[in-house]
Amino acid sequence: MTEEIVEVMVNPEKKKGSLKALYLKEQLTGYLFVLPAFIIVFVFGLFPIGYSVYMSLFNWQVTKGKFVGADNYLKIFGDWRSLILLVVGIGLVIFGFWVWRNAFKNQKHGAIISKIVSLVIILVGLIFFSTSWRLMSEGGTLIKAGWLAREGAGPIIAKGNKDFLNSLMVTLYYALGTVPAEIIIGMVIAYILYQGIKGKEIFRMIFFLPYVTPAVTTAVVFQIIFSNRPTSIANTVVGLLGMDPLRWRFEPKPVTTLLGMNLTGFWSGPSLALVTIILFGIWTYIGYNTVIFLAGLGNVPKEVYEAAEMDGATRGDMFRHITVPMLSPVTFYLTLVAFIGTFKAFNHIYVMRTPSAQDSVITTSLMIWDRFYKANQYSIATSQAIVLFLVILGLTFAQNKLMGERVFYG
Amino acid sequence: MANLSQAINVSAPVKKLKSKNSFGYVIGRVLLYLLLIFAAFICLFPFYWMISTSLMTLGETINKKFIPEIPQWVNYADAWKQAKFGKYFMNSVLITLGTLAGLLFTSILAGYAFGRIDFKGKNLVFALFLATMMIPESVTIIPNLLMIRGNILPLPGGSWLNTYWALTVPFMANAFSIFLLKQFFSQVPKELWDAARIDGCDHMRFLIQVVLPISKAPIMTILLFGFTGAWNAFTWPLLVTTKDVWRPLMVGLWGFVNEAGPETHLLMAGAVITLLPILVIYFLTQKQFTQGIATTGLKG
Prior knowledge:
heterodimer; A: mainly alpha; MetI-like fold; 3 domains; B: about 0% strand; flat
């Protein structure tokens, strides 16, 4: 290459050709450097998506069978009518949020009216959504699902895959149970460590430990700590608080029922078995969030805090009005990663689940694994996996829209 | 203006002194430390319990003692033998080393190309790489299993089930490591490259002689994440190993869970064994790793 450059310097008229050769060489080097990684990522990461879609269109059990088109997907939702209702419902909710946003933008002109309108739209969307959900999990006519008032009218709608829908709900519980808790606790711990704490490095090292250690190993330990024996560690702690021993990992009843409340459906909340798994999830990820938040805190200019201190701000004020907004890009990133992570979570749930907790701990990724590993129903499993992927995409997009606009970039 | 800056210089230290000696400040500090110690206790308790149980006798585990009277080191030897950990441990070590070697090779090259070379379609390819981070394993695992069985493409040697390749090759590249290195490599000053080019350096030599020696922190970071990923892998090895030939430690431990049954002390000894290499690597890379996170785009 040196000769080329020298030659270009000496013979200006040769410049064009040589520069082109340089350019081509640069291009080639780039492709060659990326090639090894690209082959692996393509073969094991990208190609399988297309192949999963392909598989889901057949009746595929270990080996390829008949072409069945969208049948595997219809089995999930039951009937195209409930699917339309679902899509319309989600669309209305999104539209409602959009109207709400715009109401904020033009506050002068009938802000209240457009807010009311948007609330109505969201409400209708939610009714559509819950109706379609009930239709998909129980089937029957629209009337049975609480839709319309007249009796005997309307077509009978086939029910979809109740187990799969239930697994989506379990996954949602798991996500809502772990993500906010681990983000908030992680941020608070990072903020405390940032206050010139002695032994900060040691604390950080301890908090990060659960994240690096194998989930299978630590889940086995949690399995024993949260066993249903009256002498288990968890029950000893509960006993100290004056409560009766609980069944923990083996308890399929919702926590609200255990607390004496009488709620049904979605609002009854996760089972105690799932809560145990949620506790494990929080325990694992707090340290990771703490470490990343600490790195983010290092980027907040010290002058901002000094200025605020001079203005008489308390530590609480500074946390609320400086730290939280300055960290918002980090929070956004961590929430996104954590949310996607909960939809992928597998190992510790697989280890901690018990037959007696029934389907109350079966998240979608476990559901898919069982379909495929135990039942050998490859095409059903792939169609469910594709739906899960679409749900993740949708939620990520929604989160981007909702949270992304509030992020403050220095 | 001069008065103002003087006032600031004078008042700031006074205010700090006052607040540092006040009663409220001291109480606040004590509370903070108590909170941290409590959190550390929660983090460490399962580990403490694991280690102490692994040193108990069977009787002590049943009676729920917190500390073993005489440490039973023999539990480790028993668990090692009973769970065939010797074989599994070696397998895990070899799988992890192979995966790491491949991972370093592919991600350093790709990270460099994405960070420092302009080629057509770069952004598109990079976006495709990043997109794979969002894809759940549930989607890819079934086609990948078929691939490894040789059902999709003909593989050298027919089926890769129960082979070393099945356990290492799919993990020899990932978007996260490439992203991390790209962020770091793109921060290397352009002047360095210009100077090197005048001296007749091409990209490969520049990468090896200039860039790599200053990239210790991000490389340690991907080593730590790569190590934990490979060592902790569970589902994929469970799928592609049906015999002991290449079965790794995590699958072995899972088998031992069902086998050891009520012998908690042996199970916990086994659990500690699976943990040790991770702890060693963690303490060794700790410092560079923290630095790696702070200097790369990982924090968002």
